[in-house]
Hints:
globular
Amino acid sequence: xxxxxxxxxxxxxxxxxxxxxxxxxxxxxxxxxxxxxxxxxxxxxxxxxxxxxxxxxxxxxxxxxxxxxxxxxxxxxxxxxxxxxxxxxxxxxxxxxxxxxxxxxxxxxxxxxxxxxxxxxxxxxxxxxxxxxxxxxxxxxxxxxxxxxxxxxxxxxxxxxxxxxxxxxxxxxxxxxx
Length: 178
């Protein structure tokens, strides 16, 4: 066995040991609350329509669970549930959030994502990533001429990243202690 192969094993063992554990109620209740927030709160408070709480929840759980498969599953489930309650074509959020879950989990394996500044930049990046891939999928699969508003995306991404820091701090309190 080469040194390189054993390094990979140690990396996978280390990442599994550092993965956070959550109760089943957290893994089900938090994404459900985020989806319901996304659907119903903007009906009463239109100024909160810019928030993408389900995306932030997918990013958080993908970071902390540190498994690409779990990140993809969380993204797919949350995305399809959001699709079923929104006016978007079924599968659009499912595809995009699956990609976000995979890439966020990949980052979570490589980096220590417990730093607030890093979480801000990653939440911002994944919001822009989400919006860009939603635009790509809408144009490529549906043939829709959806405009990509760069300035608005960057501003709303910053606001979502700020909310993400507070949300991530709250979700950290729900982790199970070993």
